[in-house]
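Two records follow; treat each independently.
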Amino acid sequence: MNGTDGVPAEQGGRRVHAAIPASAAQHPAAAPATRPWPRTASTARLLAAGVAAGPIFLIVYAVQAVTRPGFDSDRHPLSLLALGGGGWVQIANFVVAGALFVACAAGLKRTLTDGPGATWIPRLAGAIGSGLIIAGVFVTDPGAGFPAGAPAGTPEMSWHGALHELGFVVVQVSGSRFASCCAAALRPFAAAARPGRAWRQPPLRS
């Protein structure tokens, strides 16, 4: 008869214990519950959208920063690239990056279950995407001499400029909380990867 779940069994006149995973035997609640990675191809594509969002956004911005006449990345915020001739490129950059984050949020919702961050990680990813879309749809006000003919100082804020700033604040706050939640969610995985290991200070050598 074979033993299960650590129950002793008789085998050849000797008492033996059935082998069970170390994570289940020593740390039954060590790792949060998640679905297998990834469960479907569509989920994998949604998650990949979030991975691609940041690099695509930065590359498009960098190309514009060096090709748009009069733009100085040391003086001008990137939002000003949405104004003037060629401004549609940065508008599209905001909106596409936002849509990719929203898609990633859907993938995270499918992947995470009841583990740490399962509720807030998808929500915050979606909030980042929504903030980027808002920032793209509602452009900022011209200022700091860009684009050509704009006032040199800070202009009076219009209603669409205020909504643009709102989108920026949403991205900033959500991005900070998203990073914190992801770090917290990874801690149980790190603990489960090293069951029974405790940190020890190395011996001092004279």
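The next record belongs to a different protein.
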Amino acid sequence: MPHFQNTALRLPAASLLATSLLLSACGDPAPGEGVEQRPMHEPMPEIVSLDQALQTPVIPTVDLGTMHAAEIEKTLGAGPLCFFAYTAGSPPVLAVQNAENGTGRGVIKVHGKLVELQQDAAPDYHGMGEPIVLEAGGAQVKVTLAPETDIDGLDPGREYAADAIFTLEQGLKVGYRGWYRCRGSSS
């Protein structure tokens, strides 16, 4: 019987020792904890031609990249804009601005580089009965509102389901279902 009592006392003592060793390390900060560091930001992408943007990775893996407001403003400036995004809450992968002469300029991001696009018609909701087509030397992005959308009752600022088709003359054609919205005075 004394043998069992002795083992019974050793087990809680060993457990208590292990717990106290573990807890003594809790007072030390984790590596890097408490160090004031500013978050690293990637450099602002440069604006290049489509040929330059495509010179890096393989064509079959090309997708439109999401853009931040500063990247869009760098290319298109401020003003009324329309956007296509993969989801209602995600950043845009296409941004289009109305020019004063009624034509549109757009921007996409390919392999981390901004590529300017041109369009012959205004990109707001008024012309959405027909697809919006933007082009840049060898690339085309075509946006069409989803077939179930009531084109006669479009409201500026509201998002609508849309399809975008990104085509490269090198042989790539990719389609996306996403969201299209316009903001600004011309929408």
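Discussion point: Residues 50-183 form one domain. How would you locate this feature using only the token line?
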